[in-house]
Amino acid sequence: MSELYTIDEASPADQVYQRLRRLLIEGYYPPGSRLVEERLAQDLGVSRTPVRQALVRAAAEGLVHLFPNRGAVARSFTIEDLMEIYDLRALLEGHAAYLAAQRITAEQIARMEAAATALEESLTRTFERREDEVHFLVEQNAIFHGTIAAASGNQRLVTMINQIVAVPLQFRSFYWYRADERRISNFFHRSILHALRLGDGDRARAVMREHILYGRDVLLQSQRAESSASPARREE
Amino acid sequence: MSELYTIDEASPADQVYQRLRRLLIEGYYPPGSRLVEERLAQDLGVSRTPVRQALVRAAAEGLVHLFPNRGAVARSFTIEDLMEIYDLRALLEGHAAYLAAQRITAEQIARMEAAATALEESLTRTFERREDEVHFLVEQNAIFHGTIAAASGNQRLVTMINQIVAVPLQFRSFYWYRADERRISNFFHRSILHALRLGDGDRARAVMREHILYGRDVLLQSQRAESSASPARREE
DNA sequence: GCTATATTGATTGTATACAATCTCCGCAAC
DNA sequence: GTTGCGGAGATTGTATACAATCAATATAGC
Question: Over 50: is that where the pLDDT of A223 sits?
Answer without folding.
Answer: yes
